[in-house]
């Protein structure tokens, strides 16, 4: 279950407005980023949220991958996006592909400020962490 989990919090995005409010447009953007990176899309699901005070609502979406997932949430009233890309490296090292998806989406969404985090997961073979029922 060794894998890489990347997150990005995007602030004040300067992208086309449709990518923050239109589930179909955001799905196309994310699915293209996944395909271009060479990851395997299994299914995707997108939920548009109703707006308030005359403003359009955001979108939450997920692309389920054979390698794991891409999740994205938008707040168009703020111009903010949260992005989550996790890939397992069970049979191949997919880390560069995960980074490519993040780089593509951050580039497309054009935030004025971005906060990234990188987490290696499932490192039991190196002695970092434990799982239920396994010795330390």
From TrEMBL:
Its cofactor is pyruvate. Pfam families: AdoMet_dc (PF02675). It is an enzyme of class 4 (lyase). Its EC number is 4.1.1.50. Residues 117-136 are annotated as: Disordered. Keywords: Autocatalytic cleavage, Decarboxylase, Lyase, Polyamine biosynthesis, Pyruvate, Schiff base, Spermidine biosynthesis, Zymogen. The keyword Transcription regulation does not apply. InterPro entries: AdoMetDC_fam_prok, S-AdoMet_deCO2ase_core, S-AdoMet_deCOase_pro-enz. PANTHER family: S-ADENOSYLMETHIONINE DECARBOXYLASE PROENZYME (PTHR33866:SF2). This is Adenosylmethionine decarboxylase. It comes from Comamonas sediminis.
